[in-house]
Amino acid sequence: MTVETLNTTTLNMDPVFGQLSFDNHEQIVFCNDKDTGLKAIIGIHNTVLGPALGGTRMWQYKNEWEALNDVLRLSRGMTFKSAVTGLNLGGGKAVIIGDAKTQKTPDLMKRFGEFVHSLSGKYITAEDVGMETSDMDLVRDVTPYVTGISESRGGAGNPSPITAYGVFMGMKAAAKFKYGSDVLEDKKVLVQGIGHVGESLVEHLSNEGAKVFIADINKERLNEVANKYGARIHTGDVYSADMDIYAPCALGATVNDATIHALKADIVAGAANNQLADENKHGSILQEKGIVYAPDFLINAGGIINVYAELEGYDKTEIMRKTEDIYNTTLEILEHAKNNGVTTHESALKVAQDRIDTRKKENQG
Ligand code: NAD
Q: Is residue 110 one of the residues assigned to a domain?
């Protein structure tokens, strides 16, 4: 773009620190490699608690602004996810601009790995949308600062069942808070999205005797999961359905202006990231409606607990213990929100921020 074609708005906007999603990020690294066609951005939001860990997403962004906005938003989210979960990790994320199906090559992944390596461990990468374990193995060829590698190379394996277990724990804690009992037997739970995490959640719920309803855009999956666990296929609108618990396990932002007023559930607890289209506005409306929202970044932290094990070298038992602890943390956060008249989302953010602030003081002292 030449200076002549920049419009006044663009010229008046600070390109990085002036972005809407900029929230005092420590470092933003733009990576370019002509030979492999790599164009990537690494966002390091905060490293007070430890190295910034977060996945790499490869996506065909409409433009660079969209990619920058995504990496700023996602890396900030990782800071709070790790902090509230009690992990000694900071928040980071990376995006690679391009189509993962047609533009991802082994050379491009290795070049990306070299950029990660150049940060000397300040950022540790992992899988996200558009990435496979085999891609992380390629990154591992050039840097140790990567998690989510194959089990044969020392990786912790598929995180989805662990994520689902954490969501199940968070859901039970929300039930304890709402109903005085965490038993989900006979509760009507609608799981939206029965992919890797959703299916495993359906299994836990079915074992507990919940009345499980499933919704997905993939009809084959619906039949498969319904037959396997005896779940009922939900037809029609998800949001106005008669249910006790709504578990969003597909896309983000499903709690939004168009859906929130129809929602009849007592509890929202699922795996999807960024479930509230507007954290403050929709968090408040849920609270006003008496719907208990178990913050997504807290209850879906099983995946990061799993990759953290690769760094700390702890075993499956410890992974499950830490994931089970999501129950206690969720309950504490829901109680804190009630006692302080804030939303559950705000309460989770505060716990995370307090942990960061305390560590910062200790580090300075
Ligand atoms: P996945 O791709 O395996 O499954 C997603 C499912 O949602 C698919 O079956 C898809 O058909 C369905 N879906 C897509 N759009 C839909 C729609 N409009 N309505 C109904 N169903 C729809 O993904 P996953 O790994 O199971 O992750 C699910 C969610 O949890 C994602 O938002 C992801 O970011 C989040 N998450 C996953 C993990 C993990 O360990 N996999 C960790 C943290 C957060």
A: yes
One domain for residues 207 and 151: no
Predicted TM-score (pTM) of this structure: 0.91
Same domain, 152 and 165: no
Residue 115 clears pLDDT 50, i.e. is over it = yes
Query: Considering only CA atoms, which of 244, 287, 237, 288 is closest in space to residue 267?
Result: 244
118 and 207 belong to one structural domain: no
**Closest CA relative to residue 310, chosen from 125, 163, 148, 87:** 148
Cβ atoms of 82 and 26 closer than 8 Å: no
Is the CB of 159 inside a 6 Å radius of any atom of ligand 1? Answer: yes
- By most ligand atoms within 8 Å of CB, the mutation choice from 128, 163, 197, 268 for ligand 1 is 197
Q: CATH no. for residue 42?
A: 3.40.50.10860
- Specify the amino acid at residue 184: L
Residue 160, both tokens: 């989805």
Same domain, 176 and 286: yes
Mean pLDDT of the residues in the chain: 94
Q: Is the shortest distance between the CB of 195 and ligand 1 below 6 Å? A: yes
Contact of 282 with 276, CB cutoff 8 Å: yes
Tell me what the mean pLDDT of segment 12-24 comes to. Answer: 83
Portion of the chain with pLDDT greater than 90, in percent: 88
Comparing 152-161, 265-274, 289-298, 302-311, the range with the smallest average pLDDT is 152-161
Q: What are phi and psi of 120, to 5 degrees?
A: 55, 35
Q: Is 308 inside a domain boundary? A: no
Q: Identify the domain containing residue 62 by its residue range.
A: 3-16+23-69+94-158
If DSSP codes are grouped into helix, strand and coil, which group holds residue 93? strand
Mean pLDDT (whole number) for 138-145: 98
Residue in 39, 62, 81, 93 annotated catalytic: 93
Does residue 93 have an active-site annotation?
yes
> Is the distance from the beta carbon of residue 51 to the nearest atom of ligand 1 less than 6 Å?
no
pLDDT at 6 over 90: no
Q: What pLDDT band is residue 1 in, cutting at 50, 70 and 90?
A: very low
CA of 193, closest atom in ligand 1: 7
